[in-house]
Amino acid sequence: MLTSILTKALYTLISFFVILNYSLLLLGTMARVRAKVQGRIGQPVWQPYIDIIKNNARRSGVTHGIMFYLGPVFRLAGGLGTYFFIPVIFGSKIFANFSFSGDVLLVMYFIFFGQLGMALGAGESGHPYSPIGVARGLAQMTAFELPFSLAVIAVAAQYGSFSITEIVAAQQGGWQNWVAFTNPFAMAAGMLAFLGMSMNNPFSIVIAPQEIPIGPPTEMHSSFLGMLQTNRAIFNGAKMVLFMNLFFGGAAHPNIFIALGIMIMKTFLIYLYVVFVGVSFPRFRTEQSIRFFLGVPTLLGLIAVIQQMI
Amino acid sequence: MSDNMNDMDQMQLFNDQGRLLNAGLPDEEKALFCDAAPQVDAPYRGIWEKFLNWARSESLWILGFGTGCGAIELRPLMTSRYDMYQYGVQPRPTPRQAGLFIIGGYASVKTMKRIVRSYEQMQGPKFVLGLGSCTVNGGMYWDSYNTINRLDHYIPVDVYIAGCMPRPEALLAGINELKKLIKDGKGENANKYAENFEWYKGNQKKIIKDWNMPDYNW
To answer: What residues of B are in contact with residue A35 (Cβ under 8 Å)?
Structure first.
């Protein structure tokens, strides 16, 4: 019993280490891709590491109360919670994390848990720009939640399961079995919702750096900010792995390294799509983004669900 | 500041317990602000501090203070021509997260108040870069009735960039000079400010007559 728990903990640590480093490098790579689009050289790929080290190495910090401490902790718990219940590589013991029969529901909850925790922490900082950022974030979140949930419901109805592992298992046997091809409306709704979830352009108004300096984390600094940046990487990685599992057949191969390679390739392309949209379109205002999510993406989600009913 | 307060009252910083008086604040607001002076945060020693200094120098987040014409020279740094991101430099809109304070040109007495507030809100180690001759000796405003002449009488300055106006290349050269200073462990001006707090406060209060803010803006 104890051995199995310890083994599981060790496996989870390995899986956590891999996703953290991969996501940090991915963030750095994408910043460079954006720079190339703008005709710049761009920051080094390892810049996210240096930023996190620098922020944690700050010698002073100001606190505004207990919730201010707990805000980043909740955010990190949201990121870790999301990641720890998603199986990263199909059929692998090391990268199975804590997946179980109803994990997709728990993951959906964890995706929003962090934002709510952050709202409490940012609220206590007393800075007026933090609640503005939080309000914008929560409004946008409520809007993209709808197409995202509809997409997940459609996929769950398609395979009669709320387990990510079973959903991935049903997609094995070639690309023609992926949800992207068997249920394209669900994929379209989900991927449009993903744009809002990743908070890149055109849905980056939440952290609008000029009008409301940096949004919810305006007052977060030093190691508080270091923690938020670490979470940003984990959370991004977790969401990409989730979308890869739900719509693009997951990552499966008997050889763990090839499977990891497949995972890296698929998630890289998923994130590249977000960046591609981001550099191509200007930013939406909050009410525009809400109107956008409640329009075509929701409709696509509804079609996907109705398709599964009939 | 209440009207009946004279200059001497304003200049007195500490009470008997060594706490800040915050004499410029109305009584009902005093409880809202901190009454502790800044502390010296000793650096680590040896290779660990060298490593952290390397990280600090390679990740400089700018708080740009567009006081004067110098602000116009800050903008091109972001563009593809100068691309400060490749040196690990990026703008940050809030003093809490920024580590490098760039004073873009002349500082009038009125903006000095905001400069002091923003500088004190930044978390250490923090660095200041004075851009343009006006921050060195007043430049073309040296005999003006309401601009300060030497910035480092009021907040510690790490690097000055002379010129009127210095080009963005000069600014980048200044940033690279600052990087060298930080890597050599010479970027300890946040501690210098804490050590000479009374001297800096005295200088600031000499020129800012309507001192209606806390004595230390944590």
So the answer is: 83, 85
Question: CB distance B83–A60 less than 8 Å?
Answer: no
- The CATH number that applies at residue B192 is 3.40.50.12280
**Residue A267 is part of which domain span?**
1-309
User: Average pLDDT, stretch A64-70?
Assistant: 88
Closest CA–CA distance from residue A180 to any residue of chain B (Å): 37
Model pLDDT for residues A71-125, shown as the tens digit of each residue: 889 999 999 989 999 999 988 888 888 888 888 999 988 888 888 888 888 888 8
Residue in B39, B88, B190 nearest the CB of A47: B88
Residue B122 in domain: yes
Three-class secondary structure assignment of chain A = CHHHHHHHHHHHHHHHHHHHHHHHHHHHHHHHHHHHHCCCCCCCCCHHHHHHHHHHCCCCCCCCCHHHHHHHHHHHHHHHHHHHCCCCCCCCCCCCCCCCCCHHHHHHHHHHHHHHHHHHHHHHCCCCHHHHHHHHHHHHHHHHHHHHHHHHHHHHHHHCCCCHHHHHHHCCCCHHHCHHHHCHHHHHHHHHHHHHHCCCCCCHHHHCCCCCCCCHHHHCCHHHHHHHHHHHHHHHHHHHHHHHHHHCCCCCCCCHHHHHHHHHHHHHHHHHHHHHHHHHCCCCCHHHHHHHHCCHHHHHHHHHHHHHHC
Q: Give how many domains chain A has, as a whole number.
A: 1
Q: Is B88 on the interface with A (CB under 8 A)?
A: yes
Q: How many domains does chain B have?
A: 1
Q: Is residue B88 included in any domain, yes or no?
A: yes
Q: How far is B40 from chain A (nearest CA, A)?
A: 10
Question: Does the beta-carbon distance from B218 to A62 stay under 8 Å?
Answer: yes
Query: Sorting pLDDT into bands at 50, 70 and 90, what band is B10?
Result: low
Predicted confidence at residue A52, as pLDDT, reads 96
Give the residue on A whose Cα is nearest the Cα of B96: A221
Q: Nearest residue of B to residue A41 by CA position?
A: B86
Task: Nearest by CB to B86, from A42, A209, A213: name it.
Answer: A42
Give the range of the structural domain holding residue B77, as residue numbers without chain letter.
Answer: 61-207
Q: What is the ipTM of this complex?
A: 0.91
Q: Is B92 on the interface with A (CB under 8 A)?
A: yes
**B70-79 pLDDT tens trace:** 888 888 998 9
Domain contains B156: yes
Domain membership of residue B102 (yes or no) is yes
Contact B92 A219 (CB under 8 A): no
Rounded to the nearest angstrom, the minimum Cα separation between A60 and chain B is: 6
